[in-house]
Amino acid sequence: MQEKWITPCIPGRKSRNKAVQYDKRQYKRRNRIEILLASFDRAYNQRRQRVLEGKSPHQKVEERIKLIPSLANFHYKVKEPEDLKAKVDDVLYYANDVSRPVR
Fold it and tell me: 8 with 22: CB under 8 angstroms?
């Protein structure tokens, strides 16, 4: 961390063999940054809800296409459920294969 000019502000565990030096003042003030970031997140979500007017993005797009039909892509075709089922089966098969390696 010191190579990247990052100073640790959280102390190491008591069971650690080598103690980590940290800035005690910065450690006491870390909650200020967390509160600041949480308030930014809250403000962003409130703005998003104002723009979407409490609707999901999908509902908003459908509403917009009804108002202006030229926005819709009429060449788009919804994939058949059978195609999706085959792909899902393949993904699950390979996921199981990876999660249980042969020893």
Answer: yes
- What tens digit of pLDDT does each residue of 77-101 get? 766 666 777 788 888 777 765 555 5
Residue carrying structure tokens 């509902």:
59
CA atoms of 37 and 43, how far apart (whole Å): 10
Q: Are 20 and 2 in contact (CB under 8 A)?
A: no
Q: Which pTM does this prediction carry?
A: 0.34
Beta-carbon neighbour count of residue 97 at 10 Å? Answer: 10
Instruction: List the structure tokens of 17.
Output: 């063999």
Using CA atoms, how far apart are residues 71 and 61, in angstroms rounded to an integer?
10
